[in-house]
């Protein structure tokens, strides 16, 4: 259990006043335009780029982009990659961009690639899990979503849903989950916070409705060539959830409103890198994310479906 959060009264859910207090405490720490849009602009030379929405927060506009295979072929399945659903999870954003830049042309021979690299640009700039309205986009993929980030992505992806074969959603589990984001969540909701054990290493979250154990195993094996896989804790769990196999736990992504449940893709996985590991570097986390996507697509290429 952590110390009480700095905003609000213990046991009392936040009102508009506390939420505004939280928002006023946030600040811009990096540039979506310089770090993300600049790379998307470069990718226009090789790939198709579509704007699927715009967010208007505090009189600032954040345009949202999808990157697609240049020669879209309706006879090929769609492979979807999403990053930055939680804007603070850096390697998810840059892993998606690095994958499409370095390997997009190769995998476009087998798939129609569809990459949404940064669903939450405000969260990217302020290094936040929530959007400005204290809403977690990765718990908001459902009908009439209160999170614009989630709703705009879902609306855009709906046109492709029947052809999406796999969806890899790139995330991180960080030490700030325990020091900041889980305490803030408990304070917002007026409940007692219980921190979880942060896994030291890379792991995956499969979907309980379509776990695809061999698919998850193939991803883990590819990532293990790049970086270490998180061992289970002394209770055989990762983040409080029993492991299904080495480096893999399962959530009901649809019931929980997670991004990995936004489509009907039969093969889905949420990655979780650990940037705060003593042996991690920012580039190693990015490389792990890229390896996860490659592991997923290589499995689907080799496996009769």
UniProtKB/TrEMBL annotation:
Belongs to the peptidase M14 family. Pfam families: Peptidase_M14. It comes from the Bacteria. GO terms for molecular function: hydrolase activity, acting on ester bonds; metallocarboxypeptidase activity; zinc ion binding. GO terms for biological process: proteolysis. Residues 28-305 form the Peptidase M14 domain. InterPro entries: Peptidase_M14. This is Peptidase.
């Amino acid at each position: 259990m952590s110390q009480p959060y700095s905003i609000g009264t213990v046991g009392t859910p936040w009102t508009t006043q506390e939420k505004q207090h939280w928002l006023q405490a946030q600040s811009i720490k990096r540039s979506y335009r310089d770090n993300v849009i600049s790379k998307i602009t470069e990718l226009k030379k090789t790939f198709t780029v579509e704007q699927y929405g715009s967010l208007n927060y505090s009189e600032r506009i954040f345009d949202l982009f999808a990157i697609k295979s240049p020669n879209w072929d309706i006879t090929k399945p769609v492979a979807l990659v999403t990053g930055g659903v939680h804007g603070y999870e850096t390697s998810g954003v840059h892993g998606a961009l690095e994958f499409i830049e370095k390997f997009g042309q190769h995998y476009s021979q087998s798939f129609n690639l569809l990459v949404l690299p940064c669903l939450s640009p405000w969260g990217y700039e302020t290094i936040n899990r929530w959007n400005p309205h204290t809403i977690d986009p990765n718990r908001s993929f459902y009908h009439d979503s209160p999170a614009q980030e989630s709703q705009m992505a879902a609306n855009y992806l709906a046109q492709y849903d029947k052809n999406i074969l796999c969806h890899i959603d790139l995330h991180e589990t960080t030490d700030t989950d325990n020091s900041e984001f889980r305490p803030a969540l408990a304070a917002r909701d007026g409940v007692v916070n219980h921190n979880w054990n942060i896994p030291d290493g890379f792991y995956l979250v499969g979907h309980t409705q379509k776990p695809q154990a061999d698919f998850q195993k193939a991803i883990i094996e590819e990532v293990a060539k790049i970086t270490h896989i998180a061992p289970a804790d002394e209770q055989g769990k990762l983040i409080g959830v029993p492991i299904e196999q080495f480096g893999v736990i399962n959530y009901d992504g649809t019931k929980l409103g997670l991004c990995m449940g936004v489509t009907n893709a039969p093969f889905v996985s949420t990655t979780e890198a650990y940037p705060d590991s003593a042996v991690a570097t920012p580039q190693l986390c990015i490389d792990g994310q890229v390896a996860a996507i490659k592991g997923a697509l290589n499995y689907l290429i080799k496996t009769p479906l």
